[in-house]
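Please, structure for the following, as tokens.
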Amino acid sequence: MAKKSKKQQAGGTPATVALTAAGVDHTVHAYEHDPAHPSYGEEAAEAMGVSPDRVFKTLVADVDGTLTVAVVPVSGSLDLKALAAAVGGKRAAMADPALAERTTGYVRGGISPLGQRKKLPTVLDESAGAHSTICVSAGRRGLEVELAPADLATLTKAVLAPIGRG
């Protein structure tokens, strides 16, 4: 069994610890993760009974040599050119999954935009603003956190931009 830090024992994942420490209103949703499901995000939306437009996936991309976090609805995909433009870059490509895991401290399918090991530039798709709350990974597969998009943007110092494709 993995040893948890005292902080994690007291408050959950690094993402939920960060939310609690910041005093941000949020709701944690747990569900039984099915390893056979083809999409982590769609699985979360189905399990919670939430529209896929309100469930956002956290992707890590390499923009001109800088790892950058993109948060987009699970109902669509990431526009890499738009992501690069949003952070003043020229080219973007998906980051190596092992590098993304090492840098964020989370496993693929459970990468949260919150509480990452290393603070990375973050871009939140502007469609998040159409919802009073959105759901993002809480730091492990089968655990989501629901919060106001403005709170997510503030905590991650995210830029809001049209980076998602329907």
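The first strand starts at residue 27 and ends at 30. Residues 1-10 have pLDDT under 50 and may be disordered.
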